Structure formats: structure tokens, C-alpha cells
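**Protein record**
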Amino acid sequence: MAPDETSIDGSTNDHESDDRPLRPDIAAAKARMSGSLLSFSIGGQLAFRRLEEQLSPTEEVLCLAPGHARGKGALAVLTSTRILVLRQGLLRRGNYDIALDQVSAVSYTKGFVRSTLSVHSSGGVEQIEKVQHGDAETFVARARERIGVRPVGTAAVGGWAAQQVQTATTGHTDVLSQIRALGELREAGVLSEEEFQAKKQALLDRL
């Protein structure tokens, strides 16, 4: 993850992009959102306006999910190479991103009004809160496709997590080590309690 915080000074013109046509991939991702950007925070709207300048020419935007991250209005962006989060406050703005090959799992928790996205990587767990349910569901589904995942219960598994599941269920390592690996997956939200107990019992039956 590479945070990039900058102050907003008088020369910043976040509204210029309103008069420019959107890149086709950004326009398509915006059209798939659950609601208009106007229904989200001012920070999320400002973050959207500076999205194109954060992208490389060959990077394709696949999905957008406005919400809040680290206390600021934010826009989570799934691209062909990374998950990018643009944060925008009244006085400061910043970005952080995670390369898709570093993402171990992506999931969401559905609340009463909005959902929370969780992105797991070797650097920890990043959360984007106050995301509309439809946007969260679409974001997770598209992210699963990009990181080559297979669903386990309600979570998404890919990268390191997929390797751990394979080791824990079909490997020839010590049974106790496999149970510990399963426990880590449960704590990360990759396995449900029921799945953990079933797999643990299957391992114990081998003893």
C-alpha cells in the first residue's frame, strides 16, 4: 500500500473535469453504480473528479464503490491491476492502493443501511465503510474474478488464502499445522465457523 497525502491549496481545481468527457471505462463503471454520485459525500464526489489523473493509460477501471475510508469521503476503484482508494477531506486528500497480486481476500459486511468492504493483503486489512449494498456486492464479485478466486462460504478466497486452503485440506503436512492454518482462515473471515469445524473434524478423523 502506498499512501499519498497532499494538501489542497488555492490552485486546486477539482471541478475542471466536469467539462471533460469521461474515459469510456470510467463512464461504464459509473453507469453500473447503484446510485448517482450526488447521493454520496462531497469527498467521494471530489475523489471521482480526480480519478482519471491517477490512472495509467493501459489501466482499465472495472468497478467503483463510493464510501468512507480512514475518516474521509472516499472512492474505492477496482482496476485491471490494483485496488485504488482515493480519499478526500476538506483540507487534505490522499490515495492508497494494493496491487491485485498482493490481495489475499475481498469481502463485504452488510449493515442495516450500508455495507463495509474489506480488502485483505499482506499489509493488513483495509476497510471502506458506508458503501451502498449493490456497489459492495458488485465490487467483491468483480474483484474475485480478477484475483482468480473461488468462493468459500460468504468470503472470497484468492492468492495466499487459496494456497492456505489447499494446504489445509489436501496437503500432506502435519495435521495440527493444518488446523492452525484453518484457524487463521477463520479469523480472517475466509472460512465460516461451520466450515472450520467440519474441516477440523475431517483432519482429526485421520489421526
